[in-house]
Structures are given as structure tokens and as C-alpha cells.
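Posted in: Protein Modeling Q&A

I'm a second-year student putting together a small comparison for a lab meeting, and my supervisor asked me to include a predicted structure for Thioredoxin-related protein. I've never done this before, so apologies if this is the wrong subforum. The sequence is pasted below exactly as I got it from our records. If anyone can share the C-alpha cell output, I'd also love a short note on what stands out.
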Amino acid sequence: MRKLILMLFLVPTLLFAQSEGVKFEHGLNWNQIKEKAAKENKFIFVDCFTTWCGPCKYMTSTIFPQAKVGDFFNAKFVNAKIQMDKTKEDNEEVKSWYTEADRFAKDYKVVAYPTFLIFDSKGNLVHRIVGGGDADGFIAKAQKALDPNSQYETLLAKFNADPQNTTIAKAMAAAAKDAYDKETQAKAEGVVLSSLSTDQIFTKDNVELLLSSASIKDSKAFNLIKDNPAKFDAISDKVKANDFLAKLLIGEAVNTKIQAKEAVDFAAIEKELAQKYPTVNTEKASLEMQPRYFSYTKNYPGLRDSFNKYIAKYGSTITAMELNQMAWSIFENCDDPACLKAASEWSKLSLEKEKDTPMYLDTFANLLYRLGNKDQAIKTQEKAISLLTANDKKEDYVATLQKMKKGEKTWE
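Accepted answer (user: helix_wrangler)
Welcome! Here is the predicted structure, written out as C-alpha cells:
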């Protein structure tokens, strides 16, 4: 079908009934919330959200209303929400928190959403969680805020005071991961790794630790993998050393250029990286990144040409899903016949890799239709519908088929 939804956080509604779930305070300012927490001897849980954030909406509509989530948070916390952005639709209560929201962003370094801040009963920040999750997982993350041995802020103070303490570093790494503090996480994991010999490090039990810590370029784990690729490959079933390092280096270089609003020259990036990291081959990672970059910049001829180059060299390693996603990106956004033709070839290739997959047939049918081959598009879409299971959203496929039969656009 149209797109693989890579994130499950696209939930439309923000408001919910609070009969069973988490009860958030209304009509209180920050000082009053702290007073209530002190009186009830509870921690304070603050959901820092924005109106445009998909994961924020998911937590609000799906996780917080659940009875077991409410039972945990209502018993342990005074709960509050702070809207961190400003919109024309904001009511008076939201507006009354504007100044406080700005202070929270500055004082507590709220830069990603959702961020959940947890304070003790005196109003001292002790823990943070970045990102949502399922009910049980989120409760488990919040549970760590109740124990000084796993509180993020408490551990951070201990870690900064004694940065070579392996026991503290292990706990710090876990807390920093939940807080999405990649720099502290990598630093703490580096301390843990430094306490081990090379042979002790390169075991299957440490693969995740190495990968997590190596996500920071030039960290200890990054250099361990770079300098010992054969040892890493021997213990890793997920990814090869060169592939991991190359994707990391190319991705960071491209993102740096994008953030600086500079043009991305892939050949120049590859050359620069080859000089600094001569043992890492970035060619494949660069070819893989280029169509994604061109899709981001809406340069669809560039996407077409770069993806064709990638297919020509590494076609056997490309998944059917990757082919389908690129084909759909062209279908949705480009009316150039040459691009659409290329996308239809990618779509056919996805079906060669995974025959009779309804989602891929739907993409192929839409491309045929946009290319003007209406009869074949209808037959292909009917085949896709015939292969659907009870768990598939049949109505979307049927709606597309009806548009095709009526001669209406199936794209926006």
C-alpha cells in the first residue's frame, strides 16, 4: 500500500476522557503544583509536548488513558502537561503557561518531543524520559525516577563527580539512553568499555553496547569497531563493521550540511572521509543515502538517477520494501514521465523479490495508472484486493480502485 508507516505515532486526536487514565492537573500554576506534590509527598510528572508532535499525540490518546497507566501515575505523581509551542487556537490556560514553558525549555534543556520531566516532591528535577512507548515500557521507564540509583539527573551529578566509576557509568549509560542524551550515554559506555580488555569487549553480549556507544563519531566504541573490524564482524549478526561505520559517517556529514543549509556534494564528502578514515569504504553508504537526500530536497530526477545507480551496483542487497518506498515517493510527488517510468521498474522489481504482495501491487497499479495504462492498473489493483487478508485495510484499496474506474486522480 501507499507507505509503510514506520512510526505508529500518527494518531489524530489530542484530547481524551480521564475517567481511568492519568489525571493531569488543570487550573494550577507551577508553584501550586509543587505545593500539592509536597503536601501529598509525591513526585511531579510533567509532559512537555507540542501540538504538532505525533508521538505526543499518541501518548495522549493511547497510553495515558489506559487504566494501568493511570493507576501507576496517579498514585505516585502529581501530573501536569506543558504545551511548548504556541498556536492561534491556544486557550487561556495554555497561554498562562507560555512564560513557564519558555523557562522549562531553557532551564531543563527540552529540545525533543515528547520530553517527560520528573521532579521530586520539593520541585527538584531528578529524571527525564525522551520519547514515548507502549504502556508497560513507559511505566518501567518512569519507575526508574523513584529510585535514586536509576534517576537520570541524580546519576548525572554522581557521574560528573566520579566519571571513572564503572558502577556509576553502567547506570548512567542506561539512564542517558532513556533521556536521549547520546553524548553522556557514549561517554558512560566508554568508561564501561575502558574497564574491559579487548577480548572481553568483543563478545556477543557486548554487541549492543558497542553499537550504541559507537553512534557518536570518534567515541571509544567507534574506534574499537574501526580498528578491529574482523573481531566485530565475528560477533555481530546484525551489521558488518564497515557498513555501520560508513552509514554513520555519511549520515552525519550529510546532516551537518543540511543543518548548515549548505549544498551536499557527495563526491567531496566521500573524498574527505577517505582521507580521515582510510579503512572505511563509504561508497555503498553514499549511494544509499543519495536518493534519500534527493527525496528530502524534492529533486526527483536526482532521486531517479541516484537510485538507479544504487540498484545497478547493489541491486541484490536492496529490499523489496526499499524499492516500494522509493517508487511511491516518485508516484506521490513527481509527474515527470521519465521518473514515473523508472519508479514503475522499481515497483516491478519489488514484486520480483516478494511476489503477490498487496502493498507492492497497489504501488505498481498506481504508477501504471499515472502513466496512463488504466486497464492494466485496474487489473493490478483488483489482484491486490484479492490477496488482502482480514488484517489489511481493504477500504483504502477499494477506494483507489473506484477512483481508477472513474478516471479520477489517485494522487494529491
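A couple of things worth pointing out for your meeting: The mean pLDDT is 91. The chain has 22 helices and four strands.
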